[in-house]
Amino acid sequence: MREYDFSGIIPAVVTPMGTDFTVDLDAFDSYIKWIVKQGVIGVAVNVDTGEGPTLDFSERRELLILARERLGTSGILVAGAIGSSTKNVKAEARMAREVGADVALIFPNVGFRGSPHNPVALKEYYRETRLSRKPLRVSETIQSGERRYFTKV
Q: What single-letter DSSP state applies at residue 104?
């Protein structure tokens, strides 16, 4: 398994949209090329800042493929894994692995919205959805009142 050095900047990139609200892949390509030239160590694609939760499966896949191409093999590709069920999130994580993502950022299932949260259930959910043979860093903060749960599997 590849060892990762997370010393550096991994920005959560935006997803440019056309006037018809479709993903503008040409603009995304230009943007990723520019971001990479800034000296980042990787990018996070399909997360909140990149419209990840509002894109469909094929759009998220296209963005990951393009980002992987622009990062080459040395940059870290973090893929947002989003779904309305554990089954959907597992499919997202598998797809992300297949197109070359290094790390999955798992968004909490809707069942974990609100409070209180059960940290054991969260840990099991993240363990179920992890990318096989890839490390999983869950940096999503789940808040319950004043308490916060961070899970690393």
A: E
Q: What is the pLDDT of residues 114-146, one digit of tens each?
A: 555 566 666 666 666 555 444 444 444 434 443
Q: What angle do CA 96, 20, 98 make, to 5 degrees?
A: 10
pLDDT digits (tens, 9 = 90+) for 41-51: 999 999 877 78
- Whether 138 and 151 have beta carbons less than 8 Å apart is answered as yes
Has this prediction a pTM greater than 0.85?
no
Token readout for 57 is: 């499966």
- Residues forming a β-bridge with 81: 106
